[in-house]
Design goal:
homodimer, 396 residues, alpha/beta, Arc Repressor Mutant, subunit A, Nucleotidyltransferase, domain 5, 3 domains, five-stranded mixed sheet, 14 helices, 15 strands, globular, DNA-binding
DNA sequence: GCGTCTTTGTCCTGAGAGTGGAGAAAGTTG
DNA sequence: CAACTTTCTCCACTCTCAGGACAAAGACGC
């Protein structure tokens, strides 16, 4: 099917599209309240957007004490694809232009199988969503990968946990297959954008979004925009030294944060503890499943297992220590904790908070909320849709 | 004397003023090459700037193969005052509108004497510069203080090393006394702006500027702009934990970076070493001067004293470790080392580089210069002048 | 049911912003 | 001294944008 190809012709139109995306259907009068334009000029730009088809009339709204307004809204037929490639699974979702999720699929998959296999999977999931009637095609797609990305080109660079992906033209290839514009970013940055768009970080301009999953990363939002760094590796905090002369890490150094606490490290420590007979709870789970994951530790902790609680607390202390440093450095207005280990819940959060509030200066922590992400596994795909919509809703 | 009060009327004029500030006298044609405006429109805006008096004609330039151009330049009578209040001294300088230093005074002074005493000193230095004929008055002033600042209001907040300054209306008071607009910022941010304007960081959009003096701070420039954080305390890295259970720090915690390495810590360690008889060089200097400073350590190191070199190396390792973490997190394109201890020179730099290159990921360090600041003690005052000129050269 | 008030949206006019070309002014070069 | 360059100014024309007048459509009080 032929998809929309129109783009806003100027900054005003871009602004209007974003207001409609974030605020849903609106009348010209309501739009006028939110934008610095005369009614006449605004009407002209809205008419032009109607001509492009990006925006459509949406009937009459209720009266607010006078003539009823004619609402307009983003074309309800627009479809964005949000893809979140994690280390061990793939999430794919369809959204409308208002970034509401219409359908969401998740599939376990090891990113190390390489770009070709993963791509095949993503395309099949996208096709499945299309086949279920949620979309006739895609107007744009955003995709997140678990490693640094050369953002302007949309190409992963030197990704430690993604052998085979280095230099793979993700943007180019996906755009070719889907026949629509594509933007690529680090998965952590997308999670931050997701929480900023629809989660706990709404209306916060400077915040950190720490994602603890198989590895650890940190999305940085400064002045409302994602900070990616000069080579796209900003936020790569997994290899900050957390313990002097600590555990050996896959990167070759010792004591990296990721070696001491992450989904993978936690699972390894839990198995160790079970084998050493420190926890019956963990041992029986190990026996039953053959292996342990962060989910098992969470369950054991919920059941009151002291060893599991200790593991979580110790890990939280490590992460908290590093975050404390980042808070001193960056002075954010909010810290969001997300990723797979959020299942560890309040125990983890309490440990992190303790460290940060104790080690950072009062001025930086005085009014600093440290909270769990609100969107869970949908943060990434919403962020991905947001990424491509920000791109498409900007002047060409 | 009546000073200039005009401000640019629109973004074009602001852009032109900044081009003239950074590029010196220019013809209309040269300006046209650097700005996206038609020659006719550009001529109109230049004429309006001439009318305001901010810009003046500057005679004919050499021919470039055709008609000679009529240069324009910023009014050579404009004067900015740059003030850099350090922990132990005050720098005051006069610049022209192109931010060239016309006169510079330095005066030892303890910031703990409080805002009233320091202000008196600053005003007397400003008057001295005026009396020497360098300025008939000031069109604007920038001032840096060694602590966090609520930037929009220009008021220091909860400054640990500046008791008595909390909430003191620096901007308001100085503006009153000098009769011109004033902007206030953290001294480290100003140093970063100085190096960005006229030093090693020219044309770098994302960099860190670590200032090691009495304390330690870090200026953060992201996307060309200084990142100040939500409460103005961004870059306050002196109290990041560098050594678990390390030395007690004035802030109440243990192992803070500042407690292990800074001008003050280095002097203390040197005295200790001298008293323990570890270094004859340092001991003789202690005897001679009654006390030791970073300058003594630098001299001892230059003379080949092993103990002094060890102190510097160990300190550099500590700082380098912290910077390594910040590099992983922020992924800057450049790291500038400045402040009082730059006298320690290459020994310090080598230790820092070793740590950063060893601990951060190759992608972040692959093309990362770590260099000493170029401007020395003038970085702060140039940054201060730049701060106020950025303000005055923006539309009102 | 009817006039009055409020809200919404459209139309029109006039002020500026901005472009691009013509052409004058002032050089260089052979 | 002719031909070519570069710089700058002037002018006509287009486009943007604001703000007021006005029409449409509803709420509300009497």
């Amino acid at each position: 099917m032929r998809r929309m190809t129109a783009r806003p012709a100027n900054a005003h139109q871009a602004r209007l599209l974003k207001l409609l995306r974030d605020g849903g259907p609106n009348s010209r009068a309501q739009l006028g309240d939110q934008i610095d334009l005369s009614r006449s000029k605004l009407a002209v730009e809205v008419d032009r957007l109607l001509e492009t088809g990006l925006v459509v009339a949406d009937g009459l709204a209720a009266s607010r004490g006078g003539r009823r307004s004619h609402n307009v809204r983003l074309n309800p037929g627009l479809r964005f694809l949000g893809v979140d490639i994690g280390a061990t699974s793939v999430d794919v979702a369809v959204t409308n232009a208002e970034l509401e999720i219409l359908g969401h699929l998740n599939q376990p998959m090891d990113v190390r199988e390489g770009p070709v296999a993963v791509f095949e999977q993503v395309l099949s999931m996208a096709a499945k969503l299309r086949a279920s009637g949620l979309a006739e095609g895609y107007d744009g797609a955003g995709i997140g990968v678990p490693g640094p990305v050369r953002f302007p080109e949309g190409v992963p660079v030197a990704p430690p946990i993604m052998p085979g992906w280095d230099g793979f033209p993700v943007r180019e290839a996906l755009s070719q297959e889907l026949g629509c514009p594509v933007m690529v970013d680090n998965d952590v940055n997308l999670m931050a954008m997701g929480e900023q768009h629809a989660g706990v970080a709404r209306s916060v301009g400077d915040f950190l979004c720490v994602k603890i999953g198989t590895g650890i990363g940190c999305g940085i939002v400064a002045g409302g925009d994602v900070h990616r760094g000069v080579t796209g590796s900003a936020g790569d905090i997994g290899h900050i030294q957390a313990v002097p002369d600590g555990r050996p890490c896959a990167c070759g150094n010792r004591g990296c944060l990721e070696a001491h606490f992450s989904g993978a490290a936690l699972a390894r420590d839990a198995v160790e503890a079970a084998q050493q007979g420190l926890s019956e709870e963990l041992a029986s789970r190990l026996e039953a499943g053959g292996t342990l994951t962060a989910v098992d530790v969470a369950a054991a902790a919920a059941a009151g297992d002291a060893t599991a609680l200790d593991l979580i607390r110790e890990g939280g202390n490590r992460v908290g220590q590093v975050i404390a440093g980042l808070v001193s450095f960056f002075n954010p207005g909010l810290v969001v904790i997300g990723g797979g280990v959020t299942g560890l819940g309040h125990t983890l959060l309490a440990a992190i908070r303790t460290q940060v509030y104790r080690q950072s200066l009062p001025l930086a922590t005085g009014n600093l909320p440290i909270v769990l992400g609100e969107l869970g596994p949908t943060a990434g795909v919403i962020g991905a849709a947001r990424l491509i919509s920000d791109h498409l809703f900007s002047p060409a």
